[in-house]
Design goal:
This protein has 218 residues and is mainly α. The protein contains 4 helices and 2 strands, in the order αββααα. The longest helix is centred in the last third of the chain and has 91 residues.
């Protein structure tokens, strides 16, 4: 070989160094791939937790990716949109919705600061809905009380009217009974007079005529 011992030594050293660097790079790449794979699993699990609990109020998960040394795209960030709007004219539905949004925001094992902000926003809206529900219930109780009082007043008025009608009916019945008794008494007196007249007629003998007296003497 034309290569002298010194050159050979340098070549071997360079080769060994290159191999070492290649091995180190390969080890670093493997470490990065392991990290990316773990990050990918964590990100997808995180966003899946949001979506699963958020249900109809959660959008589809979107991800940002990093290309690994192996040419594979790994998810390193993600988000799920969530609807934190109120339900129009329905504080109870708004409360139920915000409670679900809170659970969705805090569903991952390690919620992010953005997740906690969304949960806090949902909590604030839920508190407003609770106040609206309390006000509605108070108004409902007031209306029910007014309705009961009105019904009670109407009932009292109906009872008073019924008493008046009953009193009128009783007075009318008494008058009718008095008239009927008077009529019966008058009819009795009339019959009694007719009987007396008849008795008087049959108790008085008829007057004698002149022809009858002469005949009796002869």
């Amino acid at each position: 070989s034309d290569e002298n011992p010194a050159q050979k030594s340098e070549s071997e050293t360079a080769s060994a160094t290159a191999e070492l660097r290649a091995q180190q790079q390969e080890d670093a790449d493997l470490d990065l791939i392991r990290e990316l794979k773990q990050r990918d699993q964590e990100v997808r699990a995180h966003e899946q937790a949001h979506a699963a609990i958020g249900g109809q109020y959660a959008g589809a998960a979107t991800f940002s990716y990093q290309l690994g040394p192996d040419g594979v795209r790994y998810a390193v960030g993600g988000e799920v949109s969530i609807d934190v709007s109120k339900v129009a004219n329905d504080p109870q539905a708004t409360l139920d919705k915000m409670q679900q949004v809170q659970r969705a925001a805090l569903a991952p094992a390690e919620p992010s600061s953005q997740d906690r902000q969304v949960a806090a926003q949902a909590s604030q809206i839920a508190a407003q809905a609770l106040n609206e529900i309390a006000a509605q219930q108070q108004e409902q109780r007031r209306l029910e009380q007014e309705s009961r009082e009105q019904l009670s007043e109407e009932t009292r008025a109906e009872l008073q009217e019924a008493r008046k009608e009953q009193e009128k009916a009783d007075e009318k019945e008494q008058r009718e009974e008095q008239v009927s008794a008077g009529e019966r008494f008058a009819e009795y007196n009339a019959r009694l007079r007719r009987i007396n007249e008849f008795l008087l007629q049959i108790s008085v003998p008829p007057p004698a005529s002149a022809g009858q007296i002469l005949d009796d003497v002869v």
